[in-house]
Design goal:
The structure holds 2 protein chains of 2 kinds. By secondary structure, chain A is mainly alpha-helical. Chain A is 73% helix and 0% strand. Chain A is built from 14 helices and no strands. The radius of gyration of chain A is 24 Å and the shape is globular. Chain A starts with 18 loop residues before the first helix and ends in a 6-residue tail after the last helix. In chain B, 68% of the residues lie in helices and 2% in strands. Chain B is built from 13 helices and 2 strands, in the order αββαααααααααααα. Chain B has a two-stranded antiparallel sheet. In chain B, helix 3 runs parallel beside helix 8, helix 8 packs across helix 10 and helix 12 runs antiparallel to helix 13. The radius of gyration of chain B is 26 Å and the shape is flat. Chain B starts with 24 loop residues before the first helix and ends in a 7-residue tail after the last helix. Classes of the chains: A mainly alpha, B mainly alpha. Chains A and B meet through helix 1, helix 2, helix 5, helix 6 and helix 7 of A and helix 1, helix 3, helix 4, helix 5 and helix 6 of B.
Chain lengths: 303, 337
């Protein structure tokens, strides 16, 4: 384990490495002016491509008319925040916000709580059936929506859980729980095993070691798992649009569609809602993004 | 069967037990019993959840695929009347119908081919573009943190939001076609013409998927020991040779993980196609969205066939993953999973 999660993230985090050692990789970038100009050119083009669709959405959300997206030039003369005030005042925006938060947070809490001990167990212990269990965790990552949708629909309607938050949370837990367990295993793997040993020497049970020593150390990993299950539940479309029937219980992913699926497409309102949803999520994402990838590839980046 | 070796003892997984200096057999047995016990207690919650929320529905779904269940003969409530399910057991007829029934080409195989093309092209584009950008960002370059922040943006914004953004842009008369017309280029009907629908779907999905690859591969690049590059340079290796013989092998384990994840995610990508086209593009549906359409997008809803598609899709992915793992293991390359 030459690298830990913290080290493999941002380039800015790396200056700790001795300068003489890191020069080898850097030198390639320093060689010519033309090369660095080309690199900048490519990166600028790529950045524009990454930025444009979002910026465009933001721009269109300022146009008051529902067909303004076809005549973007006209928006300049009449930019207004009317769409936003309409969305906030006249549409079930806050109902959707509540549903989305209830469902996503519910999934997150249940997912992380249940998965934490499992992640630890599969990281540290080799019990009979270990390989099969890991295989099951991997296989549940690849369930297409279609495979559980029909039976889930049947089961939930028998339990009268269609159109309820609990039903959707349960459905999401079927993917969030194995996902979190798998992710947390990767994170626990990066915590030195000597710590467990020390705890064991001091007379702690594995549960005690886990709760008192490892869990506090694993907070960043838990945060990553929580964040992943949150955004997964937040952005899920198929189950949400099938299982949530009343428009006050829509999540954003479904609510946003309801602007167009009706006979007249209120694209201006849709754009405004999309922006309102995207801004807080992306802001939050940026706060944690440095830690995100390592969670998934922690095992893979180990040298 | 693997031996219960605590990783804290410093032993590698899968290594046979019984090294000198360990306690006697009886103590060891007792210890391992304790460890098993703890391990099983710790994984119990997940096992229960998987059993109740995954295996039970899966078994039930599989049973449904052996029936002719649809929304007309399933148990349902109309007003105050509870109507019992009346569907019948028909054996493997659904699978036979899907795979070699009279309309199997139009319904299954055409979507199957398109799904494979879609997955292969998308993952290849994700990987190549992601690797290219990661290599650029790994250089000493002014403002690379800034570039990285912007390039991550498509990943930060929820897919259902960005797809709507793309829909505005791709609409006939949207900004993309306006731009193409200004350049006197033909303006395709992105959301109506089959070829362009597929083109647009791949484009949007590539846009959504590159940031993840880029950030993962960047992490992988930074974990490559830079003394390897120095040694290669000492030996007079060209830039291409350094890339071919140092960078690519160094990235192998990250690559194998992200490519597998990419294939699984792309194969099952629901939101992009569903939100981009709705029901308007029967030819651009991949198997997942097509299965959804059969079960929930049409009347009467064909539950049995939809579930059968689901099982087939899962089977395809499991076969793929097994082959992939075996192929990696043959090169003694362990998957990080």
């Amino acid at each position: 384990m030459s690298t830990t999660t913290v080290k493999t993230t941002a380039p800015a985090d790396r200056p700790v490495a001795p300068a003489t050692v890191s020069r080898g990789t850097r030198r390639r970038g320093e060689n010519s002016l033309a090369g660095s100009l080309a690199a900048h050119a490519i990166l600028i083009v790529a950045s524009l491509a990454a930025l444009f669709p979002i910026a465009w959405l933001l721009f269109l959300s300022l146009g008051p008319d529902k067909d303004d997206y076809l005549h973007p030039g006209r928006i300049f003369g009449k930019m207004t925040l009317d769409n936003y005030s309409f969305v906030l005042k006249e549409t079930p925006f806050f109902d959707w916000l509540v549903s989305t938060l209830v469902v996503s947070l519910g999934t997150t809490v249940i997912g992380v709580l249940i998965a934490a001990t499992t992640g630890y167990a599969v990281s540290r212990m080799r019990f009979p059936g270990y390989r099969k269990f890991m295989w099951v965790l991997l296989v549940t990552q690849m369930f297409p929506v279609a495979v559980l949708m029909v039976p889930m629909y049947e089961i939930l309607s028998e339990l009268k859980l269609i159109d309820s938050y609990l039903g959707l949370i349960l459905v999401y837990c079927s993917t969030a729980v194995p996902y979190c367990a798998w992710l947390l295993k990767g994170y626990f793997d990066t915590i030195p095993f000597e710590i467990d040993e020390a705890g064991r020497v001091d007379g702690l049970t594995p549960f005690g070691t886990f709760a008192r020593l490892i869990l506090p150390l694993a907070k960043p990993g838990l945060a990553v798992a929580a964040f992943y299950s949150f955004i997964t539940a937040f952005g899920e479309v198929a189950f949400a649009s099938t299982f949530m029937l009343s428009d006050t219980k829509y999540t954003f992913a479904v609510g946003l569609q309801s602007f167009v699926s009706e006979h007249d497409a209120q694209r201006n309102l849709m754009a405004a809602t999309a922006v309102l949803v995207a801004i807080p999520v992306s802001a939050f994402f940026y706060l944690v993004q440095k830690n995100l990838v390592t969670g998934l590839t922690a095992g893979g980046t180990k040298g | 069967m693997t031996v219960a070796i605590d990783r804290a003892t410093g032993k590698r997984r899968g290594e046979p037990g019984g090294s000198p200096g360990r306690p006697g057999r009886l103590t060891r047995l007792k210890q391992s019993y304790q460890r098993y016990w703890y391990a099983y207690a710790m994984i119990a919650p997940v096992v229960v959840v998987l059993g109740v929320l995954v295996l039970y529905p899966l078994a039930r779904g599989f049973y449904l695929t052996l029936t002719n269940a649809n929304s007309l003969n399933s148990a349902r409530t109309i007003g105050v009347n509870e109507i019992e399910a009346t569907y019948e057991f028909i054996g493997l007829d659904n699978y036979a119908d899907i795979l070699w029934g009279p309309t199997s080409y139009d319904r299954f195989w055409s979507h199957f081919v398109w799904t494979i093309v879609w997955t292969a092209l998308c993952v290849a584009l994700h990987y190549v573009i992601g690797l290219g950008l990661a290599l650029l960002l790994n250089q000493k370059l002014r403002g690379r943190t800034f570039y990285r922040l912007i390039l991550v943006l498509p990943w930060a914004v929820p897919t259902f939001v960005t797809v709507f953004g793309w829909r505005f842009m791709l609409a006939d008369g949207g900004i993309i076609n306006a731009g193409l017309e200004a350049l006197h280029l033909p303006a395709p009907l992105w959301l109506e013409d089959t070829f362009w629908q597929r083109f647009a779907a791949i484009m949007v999905n590539t846009w959504c998927g590159v940031p993840f690859m880029m950030v993962s591969l960047l992490g992988g690049l930074q974990s490559i020991d830079s003394s390897l590059y120095e040694a290669a340079e000492m030996d007079g290796a060209s830039a291409w040779q350094r890339f071919r013989y140092v960078t690519l092998p160094g990235l192998r384990s990250v690559s194998s993980t992200v490519v597998l994840l990419g294939v699984i995610w792309t194969f099952n990508q629901f939101a992009v196609i569903f939100l981009l086209f709705g029901d308007t593009a029967p030819e651009a549906q991949i198997l997942v969205t097509w299965a959804y359409y059969l079960g929930f997008g049409q009347q009467p809803r064909d539950f049995a066939q939809s579930a059968a598609y689901g099982i087939l899709l899962l089977a395809i992915l499991i076969v793929f993953t097994s082959v992939y793992r075996r192929w990696l293991n043959r090169d003694e390359q362990q998957l990080a999973i």
